[in-house]
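On clarity, I found the account of how folds are encoded harder to follow than it need be. For illustration, here is how one protein appears when written out as sequence plus structure tokens.
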Amino acid sequence: MTQSIQSACYFLLSIAISIGGQPLSPECQGADVFSTPFHLVGVGPGDADLMTLRAARVIENADIIICRKNHSETFRDYLQGKEVHHEFSGMIPFYSRDPSLYEGEERKRAEQYQAKRLKLIHLVRGAAKAGRTVAVLDNGDPMIFGPSTWMLEEFADLKPQVVPGLSSFNAANAALGTGITSGGRTKSVTLTAGDWIKTEDTIEKLSVHRNTMVLFTMRAEFQDFIEKLSINYPAETPIAIVQQAGHAAGEKIIRSTLGSALEEVASDDLPFEYLIYVGDFLARQPKQ
């Protein structure tokens, strides 16, 4: 990109922000995000103003929106006049895995989610055949533990476009106000989640180096996380629990240590999703 075009991009970006996100010039947009009938759109971790300009443009140009119910309220100004589908939310617990991996009640639930998946596939295929555009909205960055990434393989023939989003990880980093790579002993950061079925990178194995870890919880038990982290980290290791990262009205940080967390934090009071940070960088708290 030449210096003159780059300068024009900055100028147009400032105008777009000031007037509510009007379309940018082709040189500033980068890839042609409107060349496909299917988009997977990261809409950020919480408040609407954390959504990117590209995400707003894709939503504006979409005919059909597939999203969670809470998105209809958060992004209501962008969804007016759209065909909106909420019935496919709630597929997170099984990430559309093969139901044969489960037993009993979990098997039944997995089969129900599989039926949802097939209905969604039928909807997208029908829309593409009719020349309509579909945008699937996902919280945060859809490529980090996102429950909708399976769609990229399912609809690969449609040449889907992914619109990156600000992750709850980024929002939580900002809330903590301390450089996550500024630990006294390590500089590396591991992002992980619960120990899923048939995965080998368990929390116990990952924590052996005692570098900074960030855990995306998603239905997992708080006590289970703390007990597994305590195998390799000393009891005095600081931790932080960040709730509602990216929601200005509800964002909250709880600080503790691995040794005292189970006594100081009531797991029943934690929301469905929250982030756990563990590492010595947390000892470098910002001055109040």
